[in-house]
Design brief:
heterotetramer, A mainly alpha (96), B mainly alpha (653), C alpha+beta (267), D mainly alpha (195), C: 267 residues, Immunoglobulin-like, 11 strands, 24% strand, D: 195 residues, Four Helix Bundle (Hemerythrin (Met), subunit A), binds heme-A, binds dinuclear copper ion, binds copper (II) ion, oxidoreductase activity, acting on diphenols and related substances as donors, oxygen as acceptor (chain C), cell membrane (chain C), electron transport (chain C)
Chain lengths: 96, 653, 267, 195
């Protein structure tokens, strides 16, 4: 199962990836756009960190199905949410 | 909210009783009489204990499957009565009010659509999946038997809410799609829409769990040697449907919960004012709604595949193609939802892209039709009733598919959307596609479940009535749609429409004869069950594992787990003479014990729904607490299995 | 009302329909006939065909059965792309300057405003034949769908939003238009008269509307907004400036309130 | 009771874990659609207050910290159970519950504060979407807490076994999943409002 080392590494990474966007927002040391990008990137990386270190999503090994079902879910989420934003944005633009 | 809400009864008062119209009143009476009649019958026969231990608390997938189908049957009576009432109304209502007041007509089309999709087709499909899939993959049960019972009971709770709305209060008038802002409190106060929301929400939870259950069952509990590419087509389609379920149903949950929040807590997701956006409801609803129609039709495709191979006495043509086509349809079905609202006003790029995506589904679907055709080619076709339904399906479904493709072309959709052309399209998919499929499956697997065959003559009669009835009832609607007749019309002033509407009414009457024939078939067969007995377990010269065991199967399904070496495993073993399963195992088998958790959670779900509909908050929270307590209580309970010894004459269905 | 009138949009949509229909028949009719033929020829009781129980694959057939639908959908897809852009309801029709008409869906009737003529009507809309029409559409109530079947096209009407539809009539005549989207008890009767007339008749009609003495204002709009079934045709000889836009903006307004109280054109 | 062999037990657990994972995928879609809806409605203020007028950085940071640490403690609880230390398992589980309860308490305080300022969920489309998204996450956390407390009771009664460890493992998955959702919440809903 998961070793103590894995847990602690995961936690350390998560802390860094959480603190970073918070500090950036509080300190305002980047232009607005830049901070938004930073938030987005750290969020995606941190989600990956959680998935890998805590949720047992791995490329090989006994939980392989987790990765494939997760990827499938991601594709569908991309279609649904991306589609929603596209469609609703287009409608908004045509009706306002 | 201006209504009086009392602590004890919420907004439930004496005016909830259906004394507002004689039609509603008689409907309520029939519902009550049906329920009471059933209770009296069971009491009179002294069968309560047998019913409770044999069925209601059973976690055997076969019994749960049968209960699902019985539920579907009860609901279909309601659904059909609604349908024929609408047809009669429209046949009469030229420049007059017909016999139904508008508000009643609206409840009828709403409940017809809701019942048919959620409480007729879905349970029917789930019932067939339940009964057949474990048998087809050589498994002793589904992965989570108790969860399976809970799913069933939640579905039943939803159906119960749906039925009780006829007696206490009213049902929604907003159609099966419940579009806001019309379905919001501003335009439809009262309990109707709430009944709609909670009945589908509660059954939707059950459906999601069914989806999970069957994915795990199919991926984990196959007999040794049953590779994915050796699975029977019905199992494949069941898998794809289950995948669609777990990914599509959240969209239904989200859209209906938000509607409920708007209605009960005064939020503004979909209201006209205060920053609501009703377009997002349609968006979310159809993200679920479109996959839903494939959730229904894919298993039917699976049944047709089994039936066509068995009754052509031939291997299924193009099995890999059929598998790929199924998965492609499943994935594509998530990319087309906008075709239900081309006329909302999106730009040409959006409409064109969704239109093209929609039409692309015709490719894999066409492949399937051709593969069935070539399965028949060079076969030895036996025209048993299931096969008749299959051939009828192939001829009619392509017509409905064609009208679907026409609707998918946005400029054509602009003039056919919301007309009866659309009504004709989807009945043309659902009746020959979904319903014929399920009926074929019912007649095909009935001998497996009950140990005797169904009468052939009445089966054929039923088929012909359905076929002709369907053509008469729905072909005129294509023409009417092109003449500009909108759907959901209570009255109309165009005399040109009436003749066609009368034809449609006659068609519905023929369909009624088709249903009567089904009942007759069942009746006649039960009376002659000794003559129709199936002693071999394999009445059709079947090809898949479910036919390798006795009819009806023992509780543990397989005396010993079969070892699969080829695609049509049972057919293969009949040819090579290799026995699939060796002698019964010496070890006792563990079979899950009956559990009361299912009925309890079903009752809890009903309370939650009823409380939420009527604002009886204590009831809602009591139901919630009961459900949580039941789950927690159960988790403390370890002794969940009993031993059985195959080979000993244990009782079976 | 006889729906004999047609216009360029209806004609184009119809033509596309028949075109697509005919193309698909090329496949669908053979499929149906083949199904029946094969079923009959290979019937167990006395069929003629050879029996090959293990025959389950054929490269050529596989390619054909994937190929035919792909080609058909390929053709259809190009039509879809082209026609959807050409027949975008927002796209103005070529020709003369369009007549601007604003339509507001109410329970259960239609209010039409002619912003350039400064008049408004209920449940009747008239326009000169062969002149492009440009509708702006909204709703005060539940979602509606605006359609004049004889002229083709259909588009939703939603509160706080504006959609557009461009139509044209090629012949003189009377048509029926209506709400296509179920919206409550009066839905079945929520129709309006659409009259296409010669330029001269149209001018006379406008004068007739103008000669009345009722103005569209807060009071009369509030009265009109009350739900009613099968409301009679009515005329308003004057309309406040930007009435339509203000009705749209009303729902997006800053005030926290529930719609239903009708203050014709605040903000 | 018949003691099922460990192998069978393990297979059953594996199936349950897979089923639970599928449930999480389904729930992920649900949350994604809530996020999508939130994005669609994010400018529908209808004259009401927006996030920048409402949100409090200290509160947000505390909530985030509590949840983040709880994801460590629950992992430690599972590790302890897996290596057979009952007392340690219980200890970490209790700490997790406390952290989770702290998070919930802050959330309830924050949301009821909004309601008191006439910025409740009925105020605008934006606030409806906000309350529903954050509230759904909060409800999940509540469910996780009830689950964790049930497990504590069961550990006390049944001690550590394969089945109990597997149950705890599923709770761990659930808890980490909620943490992921929270990453989405603070990144998409909260932080941009402070810019
Ligand atoms: C599964 C879906 C389903 C099915 C089967 C049907 C079947 C039928 N439908 Fe329905 N219909 C809908 C789904 C369905 N419908 C939906 C979604 C709507 C839209 C609602 C809305 O507007 O919101 C609608 C609307 C609709 C309308 C309204 C049209 C309008 O808007 O103007 C009408 C009008 O007459 C109609 C008629 C019929 C008729 C006559 C049948 C009959 O032909 C068929 C009768 C069928 C049965 C009674 C079921 C038979 C089942 C069995 C026989 C099982 C037997 C099983 C065993 C023996 C084990 N339907
Ligand atoms: C089981 C149910 C089912 C099925 C299978 C389908 C299948 C399809 N549907 Fe249908 N549909 C519904 C049930 C179904 N539908 C329902 C219930 C509604 C309305 C709900 C409501 O509003 O109340 C609806 C509404 C609906 C709309 C919205 C219309 C509107 O609201 O204006 C559209 C538009 O694109 C559409 C299209 C299609 C298409 C393209 C297919 C395709 O999948 C069909 C593919 C099949 C074929 C094409 C036939 C076989 C193919 C060949 C033989 C190959 C050769 C042919 C060609 C290349 C063309 N459907
Ligand atoms: Cu569409 Cu605002
Ligand atoms: Cu669809």
């Amino acid at each position: 199962m998961r070793e103590m080392r894995t847990i602690l590494t995961g936690f350390a990474l998560a802390v860094i990836l959480t603190v970073l966007p918070f500090v950036a927002v509080i300190g305002q040391w980047l232009p607005r756009e830049g901070t938004l990008w930073l938030i987005a990137i750290t969020a995606v990386v941190q989600i990956t960190v959680h998935l890998y270190f805590f949720l047992g999503v791995e490329i090989t090994g006994k939980h392989r199905e987790r990765l494939s079902s997760l990827l499938f879910a991601c594709v569908l989420i991309f279609i649904m949410v991306g589609g929603t934003l596209w469609v609703m944005g287009n409608l908004y633009w045509r009706m306002m | 909210m201006t209504e009086n809400v009392s602590l004890l009864f919420g907004r439930l008062g004496p005016d909830a009783l259906p004394f507002y119209s004689w039609v509603a009143f008689s409907g309520a009476l029939v519902t009550l009489a049906g329920g009471l009649g059933f209770l009296i019958l069971v009491t009179w026969l002294g069968q309560w204990r047998a019913l409770w231990t044999g069925w209601l608390t059973s976690v055997d997938h076969k019994r749960i499957g049968i209960m699902y189908i019985v539920l579907a049957l009860i609901m279909l009576v309601r659904g059909f009565v609604d349908a024929i009432m609408m047809r009669l109304q429209q046949a009469m209502a030229l420049n007059s009010d017909g016999y139904l007041p508008p508000e009643h007509f609206e409840q009828i089309f709403s409940s017809h659509g809701t019942i048919m999709i959620f409480f007729m087709a879905m349970p029917f499909m789930t019932g067939l999946l339940n009964y057949i899939i474990p048998l087809q993959i050589g498994s002793r049960d589904v992965a989570f038997p108790v969860l399976n019972a809970i799913s069933f009971w939640l579905t039943a709770a939803g159906a119960g809410l749906m039925l009780i709305s006829l007696v206490i209060g009213r049902f929604s008038t907003a159609g099966w799609t419940g579009y806001p802002p019309y379905s919001g409190v501003e335009f439809t106060p009262g309990v109707g829409v709430d009944y709609w929301i909670w009945s589908i929400l509660i059954s939707g939870v059950g459906t999601t769990m069914t989806g999970i259950n069957f994915i795990v069952t199919i991926l984990r509990k196959r007999a040794p040697g049953m590779l994915l590419m050796r699975m029977p087509m019905f199992t494949w389609t069941g898998l794809c449907s289950s995948v669609l379920i777990i990914f599509a149903f959240p969209a239904l949950t989200v859209s209906t919960v938000m509607l409920a929040l708007d209605r009960t807590l005064g939020m503004h997701f979909f209201t006209n004012d205060s920053g609501g956006n009703m377009m997002n409801y349609m968006n979310l609803f159809w993200i679920w709604g479109h996959p839903e129609v494939y959730i229904l039709v894919l298993p039917a495709f699976g049944i047709f595949s089994e039936v066509v191979a068995t009754f052509s006495s031939k291997r299924l043509f193009g099995y890999p193609s059929l598998v790929y086509a199924t998965t492609v349809i499943a994935i594509l079905s998530f990319t087309v939802w906008l075709h239900h609202f081309f006329t909302m006003g999106a730009g040409a790029n959006v409409n064109a892209i969704f239109g093209i995506a929609t039409m692309v589904i015709a490719v894999p679907t066409g492949v399937k039709v051709f593969d069935w055709l070539f399965t028949m080619f060079r076969g030895r076709i036996r025209f048993e009733p299931p096969m008749k339904f299959t051939i009828g399906f192939m001829c009619l479904f392509v017509i409905g598919g064609m009208s679907g493709v026409l609707l998918a072309i946005p400029p054509i959709n602009y003039s056919t959307h919301n007309t009866t052309f659309l009504v004709a399209h989807f009945h043309n998919m659902i009746i020959p596609g979904v319903l014929f499929g399920y009926l074929a499956g019912y007649m095909y697997w009935f001998p497996k479940a009950f140990g005797f065959q169904l009468d052939r003559k009445w089966g054929s009669r039923s088929f012909w009535f359905w076929l002709v009835g369907f053509l008469l009832a729905f072909m005129p609607l294509y023409a009417l749609g092109l003449m500009g007749m909108p759907r959901r019309m209570e009255t109309y002033g165009n005399p040109e429409w009436q003749p066609l509407l009368i034809v449609a009414f006659i068609g519905a009457c023929l369909i009624l004869l088709g249903i009567v024939s089904l009942v007759m078939q069942l009746w006649v067969s039960i009376k002659q069950r000794d003559a129709l007995k199936d002693t071999t377990g394999d009445p059709w010269d079947g090809r898949t594992l479910e036919w390798s065991i006795p009819s009806p199967p023992p509780v543990w399904n397989f005396d010993s787990v079969p070892v699969v070496t080829a695609r049509d495993a049972f057919h293969e073993s009949k040819i090579t003479g290799v026995v699939l399963s060796v002698a019964p195992e010496e070890e006792p088998l563990l079979i899950p014990r009956n559990s009361t958790v299912g009925p309890i959670i079903g009752a809890a779900g009903f309370c939650v729904g009823f409380g939420a509909v009527w604002f009886i908050w204590w009831l809602m929270f009591a139901g919630l607490a009961l459900a949580i307590a039941a789950i927690i209580g159960r988790s403390f309970f370890d002794d969940t299995e009993v031993e059985v010894f195959p080979g000993e004459g244990a009782e079976s269905i | 009302m006889k729906q004999v009138v047609t216009g360029p949009i209806a004609e184009a949509e119809n033509a596309l329909m028949w075109q697509a229909f005919s193309l698909m028949l090329v496949v669908v009719v053979p499929v149906i006939l083949l199904t029946l033929f094969v079923a009959w020829r290979y019937r167990a009781a006395g069929g003629q065909g050879a029996y090959k129980p293990d025959w389950d694959r054929s490269r050529i057939i596989e390619i054909t059965v994937w190929g035919i639908p792909i080609v058909m959908i390929g053709i259809l897809a190009t039509w879809v792309w082209d026609r959807t852009h050409a027949l975008d309801p927002y796209k103005q029709l070529p020709g003369a300057e369009p007549l601007r008409i604003e339509a507001i869906a109410l329970d259960w009737k239609w209010l039409f405003i002619y912003p350039d003529l400064n008049i408004a009507t209920v449940n009747q809309v008239a326009f000169p034949v062969e002149q492009p029409l440009s509708f702006r559409i909204t709703s005060e109530v539940a979602m509606n769908s605006f359609m004049i079947p004889a002229l083709g096209g259909q588009i939703y009407a939603m509160a706080g939003m504006e959609t557009q539809l461009n139509l044209q009539a090629n012949e003189i005549g009377a048509m029926q238009g209506r709400n296509m989207q179920f919206s409550g008890d009066g839905f079945s009767d929520q129709t309006f008269e659409a009259l296409s007339m010669s330029q001269i008749d149209f001018e006379a009609w406008v004068n007739k509307v103008r000669s009345g003495d009722s103005a569209l204002d807060q009071a009369s709009f509030a009265e009109l907004s009350k739900p009613s079934i099968d409301a009679p045709i009515a005329y308003f000889s004057t309309v406040p400036q930007d009435f339509f836009s203000r009705r749209v903006a009303h729902f997006m307004g800053m005030e926290h309130e529930h719609a239903g109280h009708s203050d014709g054109g605040d903000k | 009771m018949i003691a099922a062999s460990d192998k069978v037990e393990e297979q059953i657990d594996e199936e349950t874990e897979f089923g639970f994972w599928l449930y999480l995928m389904s729930d992920a879609v649900l949350f994604s659609l809530l996020f999508g809806t939130f994005a669609v409605m994010s400018s529908n203020l209808a004259g009401g207050p927006g996030g920048s007028a409402l949100f409090d950085m200290k509160n947000l940071a505390t909530q985030t910290a509590l949840l983040l640490v709880s994801s460590l403690t629950i992992a430690l609880a599972h590790h302890a159970a897996h290596t057979g230390h009952l007392a340690r398992t219980l200890g970490w589980l209790v700490v997790t519950c406390l952290l989770g309860a702290g998070f919930l308490g802050l959330e309830i305080k924050e949301l009821s504060g909004f309601v008191a300022q006439d910025a409740g969920p009925g105020r605008s489309g934006y606030l409806s979407a906000f309350f529903t998204l954050v509230g759904t996450h909060g409800l999940h956390v509540t469910a996780g807490l009830i689950w964790a407390m049930t497990l504590i009771a069961q550990f006390l009664i049944k001690g550590i076994g394969l089945r109990m460890t597997s149950r705890l493992y599923r709770l761990t998955l659930f808890w980490h999943f909620l943490d992921i959702v929270w990453i989405g919440v603070f990144s998409l809903v909260y932080l941009p409002e402070f810019l």
